[in-house]
Design brief:
The protein contains 17 helices and 13 strands. The protein has 377 residues and is α/β, with parallel strands linked by helices. The protein has 2 domains: 182 residues, 3-Layer(aba) Sandwich (Rossmann fold), CATH 3.40.50; 180 residues, 3-Layer(aba) Sandwich (Rossmann fold), CATH 3.40.50.2000. Helix 7 links the parallel strand 6 and strand 7. The chain starts with 5 loop residues before the first strand and ends with a helix.
């Protein structure tokens, strides 16, 4: 390994940006003189990464980082050119296969080793893609416990490192749902997602559900979470309401005090589970895209991460969900009417995600850093 290695690290989404920043910090503790270059967002820049391009801000406000084909190709060209000029010691793609597989392929052509952080979820859809991952990556750092065995059986050099989400989540105790049911003073979290397209699809239904549940539980309080101020503005525009109980950039604190949640599907459901908050999970899709394509590509019996990890329907998942708010209400009201079931679910949720946390003083980022260093060596 070079004395002062250059590490090229690439992320396209806000979550990948955050996890890449954590990895940069972990690598700096081991390789103080390393140089970090890549593409990503503000978290990576704050960690000291020289950004060639910054698709993360764009990704947060579109259907993804590459909603426009021209932008997609421009980012790839910039990154390829930078790799060719810099000749880094290693390429570390973080999640986002739509971008990162192109860049890993470019690294391969330049004979640059590749250590993939946050394995693409080929086990969930289009499983034949695992062959491409096997060709492109020297090693893969997995963040879900079952992934190591899944990928290893298919010839991928895979290692479970823990989930980086839990590196920063504080230990906590679930709220008293029995007291909330007795008093009617429910605290309910509503999580519409982080991208503009998700918010537009989910926020109106969540607000309708809030109004209906507020009519039934007059003492209940509601909080809608927003990842940033732009997301909060999108929620207001999508619902046509300015007087909404929105909290910005404070999801953990909202969940810490909540008795119940209605949440869009995604990594945030693991965060909800960490705080022991019973939930209904949903995600809107178009009927025709689902019928023509989605149902044939998806290969798992469950679609939400919580139920995938549990291997059963631990919480209701309305997926695919085609926009019927009454479905959300029926599921929420049924759960909230079963206090014993909620208390049992709180225990199951916290136990489910406990293995995702790496015990201090290590972290998922530390474990991933070791893999990156072993590939460089």
């Amino acid at each position: 390994m070079k004395a002062n290695p250059t590490i090229f690290i690439t992320a396209a989404e806000a979550s990948g940006d955050a996890h890449a920043a954590g990895l940069i910090h972990a690598l700096r503790r081991r390789l103080g003189d390393a140089r970090f270059v890549g593409i990503g967002g503000p978290a990576m820049a704050s960690a000291g990464c020289e950004l060639v391009a910054e698709p993360v801000r764009r990704a947060a406000m579109t259907t993804g980082a590459f909603a426009h084909l021209g932008y997609f190709h421009r980012i790839i060209r910039q990154a390829r050119r930078a790799m060719g000029e810099i000749r880094p010691s290693i390429h570390v793609p973080v999640d986002s296969p739509a971008l990162n597989w192109h860049l890993a392929k470019a690294a391969r052509k330049l004979q640059i080793p590749v250590a993939y952080y946050i394995a693409p979820q080929t086990w969930a859809w289009a499983p034949w893609r695992v062959r491409k991952l096997r060709r492109l990556a020297d090693a893969v750092a997995c963040i879900l416990p079952f992934e190591e065995e899944y990928f290893s059986k298919r010839g991928v050099n895979a290692h479970y490192v823990g989930h980086p989400l839990f590196d920063d989540l504080p230990p906590t105790d679930p709220q008293d749902v029995a007291a909330a049911a007795a008093s009617g003073q429910w605290r309910i979290a509503l999580l519409p997602g982080s991208r503009e397209s998700e918010i537009k699809s989910h926020a109106p239904a969540l607000v309708k559900a809030m109004d209906a549940l507020g009519g039934r539980y007059s003492q209940a309080s509601f909080t809608i979470t927003a990842i940033n101020a732009e997301a909060a503005d999108t929620i207001r525009r999508a619902t046509g309401r300015d007087n909404l109980p929105i909290e910005v950039g404070n999801t953990s604190e909202v969940l810490k005090r909540s008795h119940f949640a209605i949440t869009a599907s995604g990594t945030v459901t693991l965060q909800v589970a960490h705080f022991g908050v019973p939930m209904v999970i949903f995600y809107r899709v178009g009927k025709w895209p689902w019928r023509l394509l989605g149902r044939w590509l998806i290969r798992t019996p469950h679609l939400s991460l919580v139920n995938i990890l549990a291997g059963k329907t631990l919480v209701p998942e309305l997926m695919p969900w085609f926009g019927d708010t009454n479905e959300l209400l029926r599921s929420a009201e049924k759960m909230m009417g079963d206090v014993a079931g909620l208390e049992k679910l709180q225990r199951e949720l916290t136990q489910l995600v406990a293995p995702l946390r790496v015990l201090p003083p290590d972290s998922a980022a530390d474990n991933a850093a070791r893999i990156v260093m072993s590939v460089m060596q």
